[in-house]
Amino acid sequence: MNGFERSGSGIDNMPESIEIHLELSKDTLWIAAQELWTSTDIDSWIDDLVQVENITQTVIGSSVEGRPVRMLEIGNKQAKRGILVISRQHPPEVTGFLAMKSFIETIAGNTYQAIAFRKNFMTYNIPLMNPDGVDNGHWRHNMGGIDLNRDWQEFNQPETSAVRDFLNRKKAEGFEFVFASDFHSTWKDIYYPLDSTLVDENALFIFDWIEKIAARLSVDDPNVAPSVYVKPTMVSRNYFYNNHNIPAIVFELGDNADREFIKKKGKSAAEELMAIILSK
């Protein structure tokens, strides 16, 4: 494979052209730039986690092609507060998923902190929002041809509708979500909270949380880019905050981030979040 990169950053740093030479046969040839982590792989990960006490799974809906949208339920189901964590709205964004995986495994761990958190708070995790897109090798869309992270206002797709319906059920039960995160991947590590001037006081802890993660990882600049737009609610973060008053963030990992660093970042993020929430 040969490529020529432009100068600059972001999308301007993409190769102008790429030439790939492949040996073809009658067998199916799969090409991936990241680890696959298909729906089968994630189902196996879920099956392993539910062996832990107080961790169960449920199906909250189906994709366009009929794949289940699975949700992990972690903690004391009698608790009236908790957090929501989602990932893989965009199929190839594997580094975000890996950070989320470490984040959830930390909450599901056997430390005193994790045990105390699970006793007092529920964690609801949808690790694979777009199973059709992942299994069919899509770039951003589901099988309905829609970018799911632009469907949190119209809810034209069954995957986003399943999460909306779940949140509405929890609201009717009097359940309070105190935090939500949507894990993604992009050019480099970056956090996308809502701007501090746009949110209630109860959401400001997210900025303190980001600083604590950075300190744990010895990162001088955590790369925070607050959004100055609360509406429209096409993206998950805006929907979570506008419609359910959930302090929410988009948590992005770099496509080329070191895998051990990703694991450490997910773990640090979970531990710092649990510490803040348990102290409130």
Question: What features would you highlight for this structure?
Answer:
single chain, alpha/beta, Aminopeptidase, two-stranded antiparallel sheet, disordered N terminus
Overall pLDDT confidence? 93
What oligomeric state do these chains adopt?
Answer: single chain
Question: Which regions contain 5 or more consecutive residues with pLDDT less than 50?
Answer: 1-11
Give the fraction of residues assigned to helices.
25-40%
- N- and C-termini, Cα separation: 53 Å
N-to-C order of helices and strands = EEHEEEHHEHHEEHHEH
Q: Sheet bearing the most strands, described?
A: 7 strands, mixed
CATH fold topology: Aminopeptidase
- CATH architecture classification: 3-Layer(aba) Sandwich
With helices defined by DSSP (H or I, 4 residues minimum), what is the helix count? 8
Radius of gyration: 19 Å
- Please, how many domains? 1
- In spatial order, strands of the major sheet run 3-4-6-5-7-9-8
Shape: globular
The total count of strands amounts to: 9
CATH homologous superfamily title: Zn peptidases
The assigned structural class equals: alpha/beta
CATH class: Alpha Beta
Beta content: 15-25%
